[in-house]
């Protein structure tokens, strides 16, 4: 997964950081979810979002990204790999980007041949719209885990 390493290059330049307001809100939501639990997350009123009005978070977000990051954090801690939830959030996009290339290769190899699978994996790795959403520190809900999961589901149904 060389593309995962390439997309993590920003981390070596500026440390672990989230770039935009959406990423920061998603990180705070994930942190609240892992700290207080899912029920509290659904009933959470965030005073810092949409200041000065605030925001009822549970009814206004799609929690899939937060739950995915929280589950990865939980599993890593179960395996005694102590990692901060911020680090999971920062590296979630490049990891799923690499997994998307693998699932694209598997699906295309199943439908056509190995050469086509390698070509498809290379193409998905360099799509500009996907690169901009899958660099380290990009914690947005647009197509990160969903593309990988849909490709993997399609591959699994063809087996």
Key traits:
single chain, 159 residues, mainly alpha, two-stranded antiparallel sheet, 9 helices, elongated
Give an overview in words:
- This protein is mostly helical and 159 residues long.
- It has one domain (2-154).
- It is 68% helix and 3% strand.
- Strand 1 (45-46) and strand 2 form a beta hairpin.
- Helix 3 (21-36) packs across helix 5 and helix 6 runs parallel beside helix 9.
- The longest helix has 27 residues, at 85-111.
- The mean pLDDT is 86.
Estimated helix fraction = 55-70%
Main β-sheet, in a few words?
A: 2 strands, antiparallel
Which range does the strand content fall in? under 5%
Which whole number gives the mean pLDDT?
Answer: 86
**Which geometry do the CA atoms define?**
elongated
Radius of gyration: 17 Å
- Tell how many strands the DSSP assignment holds: 2
Write a brief structural summary.
The chain has 159 residues and is an all-alpha fold. The chain is built from 9 helices and 2 strands.
Task: Give the topology, please.
Layout: H1 2-7, H2 9-14, H3 21-36, H4 38-42, E1 45-46, E2 55-56, H5 64-78, H6 85-111, H7 114-126, H8 128-132, H9 144-158
Antiparallel strand pairs: 1-2
Helix pairs in contact: 3-5, 5-6, 6-7, 6-9
């Amino acid at each position: 997964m060389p593309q995962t390493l390439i997309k993590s290059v920003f981390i070596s330049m500026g440390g672990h950081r989230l770039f935009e307001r959406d990423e920061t809100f998603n990180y705070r939501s994930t942190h609240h979810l892992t700290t207080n639990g899912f029920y509290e997350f659904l009933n959470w009123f965030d005073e810092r979002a949409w200041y000065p009005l605030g925001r009822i978070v549970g009814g206004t977000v799609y929690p899939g990204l937060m739950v995915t990051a929280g589950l990865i954090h939980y599993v890593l801690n179960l395996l005694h790999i102590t990692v901060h939830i911020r680090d999971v959030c920062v590296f979630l996009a490049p990891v799923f980007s690499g997994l998307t290339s693998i699932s694209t290769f598997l699906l295309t190899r199943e439908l056509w041949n190995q050469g086509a699978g390698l070509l498809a994996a290379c193409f998905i790795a360099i799509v500009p719209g996907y690169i901009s959403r899958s660099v380290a520190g990009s914690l947005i809900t647009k197509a990160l885990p969903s593309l990988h999961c849909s490709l993997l589901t399609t591959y699994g149904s063809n087996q």
